[in-house]
Amino acid sequence: MRRLMILFFILLFPSLSYAGVLASKTRIIFPQGQDAQSLTLINVNAYPVMVQLWLDNGDREGLKQAEDAPYLAMPPVFKLAPREMRSVRIIYNGKPLPADRESIHWFNIYEVPATPPAGMTARQSLLMAMKTQMKLISRPHALIADAEKSVDRVQCQRANSAPSQLICSNPTAYYMSFNEISVNINDHYFNAAASLDFMIAPFSSAAFALRPAAIKRPLARNSMEMAFINDEGKIVRRLVKW
User: Fold this and answer.
1) What is the pLDDT of residues 4-45, one digit of tens each?
2) Domains of the chain, with CATH numbers?
3) Rounded to 5 degrees, what angle do the CA atoms 112, 198, 233 make?
């Protein structure tokens, strides 16, 4: 049964399969009024690991809880044996959050071998440490529209001063996360260069560099396709006419 669960986690979230500790979700949506959520973690390494959890504002180098983070992870530190699964909790601590738009924080999973694997020194095993960051999106009561349908309101156009740039504006109260943006301009195919986050904040705009597409998607002339990532972490494609 445990082997089946490991295979399920890897198949469900292949983009995270490089990590040794996998989570049961790729993102966490926290509705206003909810005090806590549970998340299942599984160690797919062949060796035990020590796991540290914390919330921050997206610091890629940090290894500690942000003082202003409105959530806490419990337990913050624990050990996972090979193939062991454990449920952890993310608890809202009551700090105020915006009421008119979503806000974002980051749930961090840091893993390091509990003991050096066979043939390795303690120093070498530290090189195997890995940090995974997951988006935690706080959603206020006021947002009653379907987040998935809101992607239809995102508008993109080429920048007048830099035709190789795509400017996308998000007039909604939701964070828009993308897997891919493909563009056909006069039968020339481009992809928006993905950043590490590849998202647009509520009521904001973002600029993406256009790169010639290595793989041409079957798009109509002068049209665009957005591959949007929904609440469940699934990719939803939308066609947009220029």
Assistant:
1) 444 444 445 444 446 799 999 999 999 999 999 999 999 999
2) 2-139 (2.60.40.10), 149-241 (2.60.40.10)
3) 70
